[in-house]
Amino acid sequence: MNREIPESVQRNLEQTSSPDALIWFLTITHDNLSEPIRVVSDVFDYIVGGETFTGLIFDVKVISDTDQTPYSELRVQNVDRRIGQALREAQGRAKVEAIAYSTADFDLTKDPREEAGTPAEVYAFRHFELSDVEVNAAEVTGRIMLADYTQEPWPSLRATADICPGLFV
């Protein structure tokens, strides 16, 4: 997927007379979560691919495109505190997927909003991790980045007396 929003789509969305807007669909998964957290950057709920995304205003930026490791930042209002509490209790990093669609691809007369045909992804990033999560009374913030395998110990499994007692008889 291209890392930039197509220029024609961006021009159309940025026009003052444009009835369409760019909305983000965010999915956060973790082994400790009973079900993924699905939110959309709107005040209304949306149904995409049979999954319901809860309307919650948040801010996510497009992935950086520099010589550094690609990253983004996430800010979610800690309105009902379930997201903040779930991320605070999760051990390890959560997986993040964010997809941007145009509101032109949805039937805005229904509640929750439904797909009008097959929505076209304007921008997307998948398989990223949420790190440096900070939770306070007002908001949840975090850094979205790819896993940095160069920082992982090698080998990840070592033959020690605790793991392989038969080798140390």
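(the above was protein one; protein two follows)
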Amino acid sequence: MSEIQVSAKFRIPKGMLEEFNQHAAECLKHAKEKDTETIQYDWFLNSDKTECEIREKYQSSKAVLRHQSNIREPLLALFKKFGSPSSLTIYGNPSSELLQYAKVSGIEIKIFTLLQGL
């Protein structure tokens, strides 16, 4: 399985949903304009709009790294305002380069490799 899936969760402080939405829109804009190997990049809100989960799917570990490069500026602005994700999960067999990049963030990362699937 060379595809990589990622789930990142952010907490949204009360009264800051509109600003969070603006940052999300900017990240999505950059991804749409620059990404060519991103299969999925969807942002979901929980029912009380205090948490956002980003569901991502890429063709490969290299595609994840290219995506991160493509959205670097708006993502750093999001991190500066809202902090790093509260959780980050990677599904698949990430390359050592991707793991090294992810570990630098200081975020606790869970990795799940495929047991079985269709």
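Reviewer note on protein two: The radius of gyration is 14 Å.
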